[in-house]
Amino acid sequence: MCAATAQSASRSEELTLKEVISKYSNVSPFVIIKSDITRRSFVYTERALGALDKTKHQHQQRVLIGSNGDGERAVPVSLLLRDGTSIIAMPSPHAKNPYVVDEIGGKLYITDQGEIVEEVEYWYKPHYYDKFTSAGTPMWQVASARPQRLDIDPNSHCHFWHKGGACKFCNINANSTRSRKESNIQKQLQAQDVYETVREALKQPGAFTNLKMSSGSILSGAEIFDDEVEMYIEMLQAAGANFRQRKFPSTLVASAFNERQLARLYENTGLMTYTSDIEIPNEELFAWICKGKHQEVGYREWKRRIIAAVDIFGRGNVTSGIVGGCETARPHGIRDEAEALKVVLEEAEDFAQQGVSMVHCVWVPMQGSAFHNQETPSLEYYVQLAKGLSDLRVKYSLNADMDNYRKCGNHPDTDLDRGRPVAG
Amino acid sequence: MTTINEEIAALLRDSGVSKVLATADMQGVPHILLDQSITINDEGQIVYLELTETSQTNVNLVNSIWFKRRVAVTVSTGKETYQIKGTPAYSIICGPVFEHYYKQALERNPDYDLSTVWLIEPEEITADTYAHRRSREQAEHPLVMHLDRLALGTI
Ligand code: SF4
After folding, report:
1. Which residues line ligand 1 (CB under 6 A)?
2. pLDDT in tens, A291-300
3. Closest Cα to residue B73, out of B117, B136, B26, B120?
4. Res B10 pLDDT > 60
């Protein structure tokens, strides 16, 4: 794990998108395209931006980690491929080799060096989008809509940043401060706003298959994270008051709570599934990249708590996210991609054996994060990672419906599960 | 994409006419589904409404759109039968088109929870009654037949 002794494949040796699709002919090309667009980022042509219809498409969103748009101009919040695969990414003016979204003959396409790669679509607005709560809050600032998921992120400020412990890939506090300043998006949500927005969202037939909550970590309370747990209970109860049964398809992406906190959450809310992200599945790298988490809880305890959640939520109802590729970051990351993949998949297998699916997103070195000027690994790395994680679920009969292509859409590995679903 | 003529399009639009969708899994194992609600849209694409997210048909269609594997739709009144081969081009899971069909499915049966609107683009259309198959066979393989059919005294 020392940068001085490890080797990295030279960038010029990297296979192109076409070559990767041809080499991995049993992996969905849509998932490969999604990974590469996220990894390399994209920009819009004037024609493509002209196709954005603000009466139909989403052009602003409450975003926890990432950005709420990098320019003066409204841009679509994201893209959808023909097969229903979501691309969760924002255009980046800083990207070195971006794809280009263009409008050609009345349709939108992702293009590369002037060649059409795939057709895309902008995300549509949900019906609640332009409405306001009784307190006057725009509903789009309360709930964000992925193609089939309702996101309620009640707190966009993370305490780990206070003492220099922010995860190095994350820009949450930088983004929420900017969103507050530029778009007046509040960092904390009010329970009544959540109740009213969810009530409105549920009026739209067939719009959502999952309700997800997430936020920055809150370390305060009698025990670490107690206040975070209480906030989620209040918000989940507010959202849950709109359902006719107590439990409803829902996911929490939160800090690693202890068994007492998890039981309180489960027993007092409609929550059905739980995610806590291990982020970097290697203790030494976790200590470097997720310094705050390691100092306050520690890698082993964070992992133990995630696995303990299986006893409360059930097998298949607990996942753990990783920032795929971040394990190769300079200077302490594993620069040899084959070695990095081996380390990640071995740890993922240990999680899978204990009933937890590891799911990955594609690392984007974002502005506002400590790693903003780093480079992601090759596309091939991401294809092998997605396939490797999906294969583990087949091997251990682990179902990841809670985090699938339409309930989340940010994990190339669970997108692949769609082609060979595992029964729960 | 090829164009379906108005006569066959009318059969596809008729909910009283039998329609069958044939798909195959990645090992080539076939799977057949009878669904009279299969129809055609204004763009000439065949519309199949999948109600079950992880049904064998849906999984096969996902693999078909991913790996450009063809599927077949047979439409038959008993007297007339046509087979249409094509490739799934769109798997619609959200947006106004999805909402339109979601509501339509609910009207048909309040228990229906639509998973996916599949749009299949036709590539090859063949008339598929016995008479059609036989005349094709005679034209393309005139030597393939039993001799007794040509014996003196037969029709
Ligand atoms: S815990 Fe890490 S990844 Fe999560 S919000 Fe805080 S800094 Fe970001």
Report:
1. A 158, 160, 166-167, 170, 172, 216-217, 293
2. 999 999 999 9
3. B120
4. yes
A352-363 CB burial, b ≥16 within 10 A, e <16: bebbbbbbbbbb
**Contact criterion met (CB < 8 Å) for A205 and B63:** no
- Of the partner residues B53, B63, B102, the one whose CB lies closest to the CB of residue A419: B63
Does the ipTM exceed 0.90? yes
At A265 the three-state DSSP class reads: helix
Measured CA distances, A129 to A9, A60, A126, B95 (Å): 45, 10, 6, 14
Query: Quick check: A281 pLDDT over 90?
Result: yes
- Pinpoint the alpha helices (H) of A248-318: 259-268, 283-289, 291-296, 299-313
**Domain residue extents for chain B:** 6-129
pLDDT surpassing 60 at residue B80 = yes
Tell which residue, A53, A50, A44, has the closest CA to residue A101. Answer: A44
- Taken in order of first residue, the domains within chain A and their CATH numbers are 24-122 (no CATH), 139-417 (3.20.20.70)
Residue A70, pLDDT > 90, answer no
Residue A8 has pLDDT above 60, yes or no: no
Cα dihedral A120, A374, A338, A298, rounded to 10, equals -110
| Distance in Å, alpha carbon of B139 to nearest chain A alpha carbon | 39
Closest B-chain CA to A28: B66
Choose the closest CB to B66 out of A29, A148, A206: A29
Distance separating alpha carbons of residues A279 and A274, to the nearest angstrom: 15
Q: What is the mean pLDDT of chain A?
A: 93
Q: Kindly indicate whether the domain formed by B6-129 is annotated with CATH number 2.30.110.10.
A: yes
Mean pLDDT in residue range A127-131:
97
- Nearest residue to A109 via CA among A119, A94, A99, A123: A119
